[in-house]
Design goal:
Elements lengths: L2 H5 L22 H4 L1 H12 L17 E7 L2 E7 L5 E5 L14 E3 L3 E2 L6 E2 L4
Antiparallel strand pairs: 1-2, 1-4, 2-3, 5-6
Length: 123
């Protein structure tokens, strides 16, 4: 368990942070290096809100795609045959390989380079 988790206290004082340090002062060094704090930040600030992945104009034609990478996650943003835009994790269900290696391109079907598992553009 990290030092941060051991130190966390609840306080009603608006001048104190939850770890007991004063607002308006520099954060303790652990805030910048502790993996537990980074996990909390990812959940609270990054994965708990909408993210701008790109613009529809980047994928004007059916099969056009681009990758959106955020931290350790990768998503394929792709225009389907009916013109709608879909987003999929860039991970093959078979072996976990990335399906798309190029940052952008066009594909009639998404095919994993590992064992050639194929995925439709719609689902």
């Amino acid at each position: 368990m990290s030092q941060f988790r051991k130190r966390v206290i609840k306080t009603g004082n608006d001048n104190l942070r939850i770890d007991g340090s004063k607002k308006g002062w520099s954060l303790p060094q652990s805030y910048y290096k502790d993996p537990d704090i980074f996990e909390l930040e990812k959940k609270a600030m990054i994965f708990n809100t909408w993210m701008f992945a790109g613009h529809a104009s980047q994928i004007p034609n059916p099969g056009d795609y681009f990758l959106f990478n955020l931290l350790e996650e990768s998503a394929i943003i792709i225009r389907s045959d009916d013109g709608s835009i879909n987003a999929f994790y860039n991970v093959c269900a078979h072996r976990g390989s990335h399906i798309c290696k190029e940052q952008s391109g066009n594909a009639k079907r998404l095919v994993c380079p590992y064992h050639a598992w194929g995925y439709d553009l719609e689902n």
